[in-house]
UniProtKB/TrEMBL annotation:
It comes from Caulobacter zeae. This is Uncharacterized protein. The lineage of its organism: Bacteria, Pseudomonadati, Pseudomonadota, Alphaproteobacteria, Caulobacterales. It comes from the Bacteria.
Length: 172
């Protein structure tokens, strides 16, 4: 009935004199794309991982310095000296199974892992801004100290240890 006029059929010219066009499917381009993506993404991911690892190591080093136990030991006092240090009742903080009493100042406690004697050991650690006098009672020990300024108390396996610190502000 109605015939469509499609016009003259286009025949693709040969590019080279001896070129023969092979009919059929071309191989899919996805393997090449996958290789290209792997070649681009792999170095980027590797450099990102190295940067994150380096930042993590630096953060751990900063945290170790911040919570370090370096310093002079706190001067030891007796229970009578602790009681005579102030007329006010001591401020007591209970942290896990330890009772930490101070005369003045602020306290901040947390748990940290330290490498001591070639192995990792967890400790309860408390910082005091200016306690005047400290009393630490654990199920295994009772200790009294009079640090001249700020102090850090770490408790390893029920044994308290006090070191003097430079004066600091809580939260720094």
């Amino acid at each position: 009935m109605f015939e469509r006029n499609l016009g003259p059929q286009r025949i693709r010219p040969r590019r080279h004199a001896g070129e023969v066009r092979v009919e059929g499917r071309r191989p899919p381009p996805w393997p090449l794309r996958l290789l290209f993506a792997a070649a681009v993404v792999s170095p980027l991911a590797s450099s990102w991982y190295r940067a994150e690892h380096k930042a993590g190591v630096e953060a751990q080093a900063e945290e170790a310095v911040r919570w370090g136990l370096d310093g002079d030991p706190c001067p030891v006092i007796s229970a009578v000296d602790f009681t005579a240090a102030s007329r006010r009742a001591p401020m007591t903080t209970e942290f896990d199974d330890a009772r930490l009493s101070r005369r003045i100042g602020h306290a901040q406690c947390s748990r940290h892992v330290y490498r001591l004697d070639g192995r990792k050991r967890e400790a309860q650690v408390c910082d005091f801004t200016g306690p005047g006098a400290l009393a630490v009672e654990t199920p295994k020990a009772l200790a009294y100290w009079a640090p001249p300024a700020a102090a850090r108390v770490a408790i390893f396996d029920g044994q308290p240890r006090c070191v003097q610190r430079a004066v600091f502000r809580m939260g720094d």
